[in-house]
Design goal:
CATH class: Alpha Beta
CATH architecture: 4-Layer Sandwich
CATH topology: Metallo-beta-lactamase, Chain A
Strand order of the largest sheet: 1-2-3-4-5-6-7
Shape: elongated
Helix content: 25-40%
Structural class: alpha/beta
């Protein structure tokens, strides 16, 4: 039998290149797209929410001049001068979502709204929003030689601790990390586009991930928590004890909204209406992965490393630190449930 694990996959909608199309999803709620040059991702949706004061933009793209130039062009096409941007909503702390926020704060004094746990997450094992299968295609811009909880793979450039700390210090300047001026938490109400949105904390993909629901219209700003065809990376490099458990809890939280949700506004891909169905599909994906890990564990007649198991869990094209990281997150979930044991290797 011929394996197709490494054959090319069809282009998913999250990977489609940004266009200049502007779509009105509801009165005062517009979808625009900003370019991203990441494997498996071709755009980030920047939603523009209009009110009497001007506009709020949601997830204003990557840092840098090129993305900001496109951002201004999208606003001009709508008929909105930059000075009319009074607020920025950032769904979570990845550069393709917060990139333009600091510049908008500096240039026009825009308020930056994010979850109260928003913070810089500088982690080579958690690149921004990339599917695990696409991660090996990403050429690392920063190659640390850090320890991992599972004694992970090294890189081919063994930087010293001093160099790593210097790179960490430069990260906020290079990537334009913003400082939120308004931090919100679960259950807070946020007025945007003349609508009162309910803040919903959805940790898992990141610890600070934020969704917002407008109960009146049923619009859900879902960020990367619920995407139309891909699942967000669940990293093993996190302060959370069990990030996968948090992710499941966040999915259940969104799923429990049921018919209150009429349409999800994802950060990548096209807005969609089958939100509860998509939540269940994402859960099933991870449940199947856990079942596969149980089978892999049963097949080993000796203790195995995270890297050993990752080689059986992911296709050859996906192998690397990111696959190891997600494998570790799933193994920790099973260990904490009493199904696996963790041993420290001597030496």
């Amino acid at each position: 039998m011929t394996s197709t694990a490494d054959s090319p996959r069809p282009v998913r909608q999250e990977a489609q290149r940004a266009t200049d199309e502007i779509t009105e999803l509801a009165p005062g709620v517009l979808r625009t797209q900003l370019p991203i040059d990441l494997p498996g991702l071709g755009h980030v949706n920047m939603y523009v929410l209009e009110d009497d004061r001007g506009v709020t933009v949601v997830d204003p793209g990557m840092p840098g001049r090129e993305s900001f130039t496109v951002l201004k062009a999208r606003l001009r096409a709508i008929g909105v001068p930059l000075k009319r941007v009074h607020s920025v909503l950032v769904t979570h702390s990845h550069p393709d979502h917060y990139g333009g926020a600091g510049r908008l704060r500096k240039d026009v004094g825009a308020e930056i709204i994010a979850h109260r746990r928003f913070r810089l997450w500088w982690d080579p094992y958690e690149p921004p929003d990339i599917d695990v299968e696409d991660a090996p295609l990403l050429t690392p811009q920063i190659r640390p030689n850090g320890e991992t909880p599972w004694g992970g793979r090294g890189y081919d450039i063994p930087w010293s601790r001093r160099t790593r700390l210097r790179m960490h210090a430069k990260f906020p300047r290079v990537f334009g990390v913003p400082h939120p001026t308004r931090r919100v938490d679960e259950g807070d109400r946020v007025m945007l586009a003349g609508r009162e949105w309910l803040a919903i904390h959805t940790p898992g993909h990141t610890e600070d991930h934020l969704c917002l629901l407008d109960p009146d219209s049923g619009l859900l700003i879902s960020g990367d928590h619920v995407l139309p065809t891909i699942t967000p990376h669940i990293s093993g490099m996190t302060h959370a004890v069990d990030p996968l458990r948090e992710f499941f809890g966040s999915l259940d939280k969104i799923g429990s909204l049921g018919t209150q949700m009429k349409m999800a506004l994802p950060a990548h891909g096209t807005p969609f209406t089958n939100v509860v169905e998509r939540v269940e599909h994402i859960k099933e994906h991870h449940i199947e992965r856990l079942d596969k890990l149980r089978q892999i564990g049963a097949d080993f007649d000796r203790p195995a490393t995270v890297m050993d198991i990752a080689q059986h869990l992911f296709s050859a094209r996906a192998q690397g630190p990111m696959a190891d990281s997600e494998t570790f997150a799933h193994l920790e979930h099973l260990r904490l449930a009493g199904e696996f044991q963790r041993r420290q290797r001597d030496g």
